[in-house]
Specification:
Distance between the termini: 35 Å
Structural class: alpha/beta
Shape: globular
Number of strands: 13
Number of helices: 11
Largest sheet: 7 strands, parallel
Low-confidence stretches: none
Helix content: 25-40%
Length: about 350
């Protein structure tokens, strides 16, 4: 698709999704400022190696700084004419939020309001921000729809992402900002995060160690390939949200608003049983996994499943990469990366 903007700020640019989005935008002719604090939640060398590939482009500028540092963030906005902001910076991880809750407040709450303020005062055309499928929390009606209420999170990470949605809506209401939130569903693929299941399972199986299978394998995830996530993000970036003329305060629709605010799910719309997921990894590796069956972890949910009707209707895109293809691509990358690093 033809992009109508030139200068993009991606926060979390050294992260998994941020890296792939930056690559895509650079390829499409955009100038990209990538901001990241390179925090040590997972392997910093992996982040640096992603950045090294981005820095091959003259159109990419890297800023090593914190969203929570408002004076520096303000300086960044004032010295660059930024058209669109894509906020992917966050303290990630459901389980880690049980151990270090303050990290989520600093990055996901303080950092996000700083970003909102900078967008407000510097005429940013569109703020696109990462939410998460985790906001569906205790909901059990499947598939998860953006039009469902999501007021019962089961982890602090999920609560922080729901807070981002509420804060963005407030700025849309008060200042007319165009804000779009994206609820990502279990993203996987090359250059993925080491704390995610595909990475952990592949590493353990190749090392001859047991994999940890939570909820005794009774889990379903809507695994979504990274290229599909990026395609969805790019299409949404180019579509400013319109007020919903049918929105009513008597029966408020959580996924839209009377202001320039919209929420989308980006998921594969095809939940996969965890044991079938493991089988696909075993087939791709040609190895059998040793399995340690464990109870459901606090903060986890047993199933995710994305309704993507709004994404299809508004931007004409539905994620469709087959799981087998995505897993094969990841394993090829994993073997190449660790053999050559």
């Amino acid at each position: 698709m033809k992009l109508s903007f030139k200068n993009v700020l991606i926060t979390g640019a050294a992260g998994f999704i941020g890296y792939h989005l930056a690559l895509r935008l650079l390829k499409d002719g955009c100038s990209v400022i990538g901001l990241d604090n390179l925090n040590p939640y997972y392997d910093v060398n992996l982040k640096k190696n992603r950045l090294a590939k981005l820095q091959d482009s003259r159109q990419f500028i890297f800023k090593h700084q914190e969203l929570a540092d408002l004076p520096e963030l303000d300086k960044l906005f004032k010295t660059n004419q930024i058209d669109v902001v894509v906020n992917l910076a966050a303290q990630a991880g459901v389980r880690y939020s049980l151990e270090n809750p303050h990290a989520y407040v600093e990055s996901n709450i303080v950092g996000f309001v700083n970003l909102l303020e900078c967008c407000r005062h510097n005429n940013v055309k569109h703020l696109v921000f990462a939410s998460s499928s985790s906001v569906y929390g205790a909901n059990t009606k499947m598939p998860f729809s953006v039009h469902d209420n999501v007021d019962h999170p089961v982890s602090l990470y999920a609560a922080s992402k729901k807070a981002n949605e509420l804060m963005a809506h407030t700025y849309s209401h008060l200042f007319g900002m165009a804000c779009t939130g994206l609820r990502f569903f279990t993203v996987y693929g090359p250059w993925g995060r080491p704390d995610m299941a595909l990475f952990l399972f592949t590493k353990a199986i190749l090392s001859g160690k047991a994999i940890q299978v939570f909820n005794h394998g009774n889990m379903k995830r809507d695994f979504t390939y990274i290229d599909d996530i990026v395609e969805g993000v790019v299409r949404v970036m180019g579509r400013l949200p319109d007020p919903n003329p049918a929105w009513s305060g008597d029966m408020p629709d959580p996924g839209s608003s009377y202001v320039k605010y919209k929420i989308y799910n980006i998921g594969n719309n095809n939940p996969v049983n965890l044991m079938d997921f493991i089988k696909e990894i075993e087939n791709a590796l040609g190895l059998k996994a040793q399995k340690e069956f464990l109870d459901l972890q606090p903060g986890d949910v047993p199933a995710t499943y994305a309704n993507v009707d709004d994404l299809i209707q508004d931007v004409g895109f539905k994620p469709a990469t087959p799981l087998r293809t995505g897993i094969k691509n990841f394993i090829n990358w994993y073997k190449d990366y660790y053999e050559n690093s």
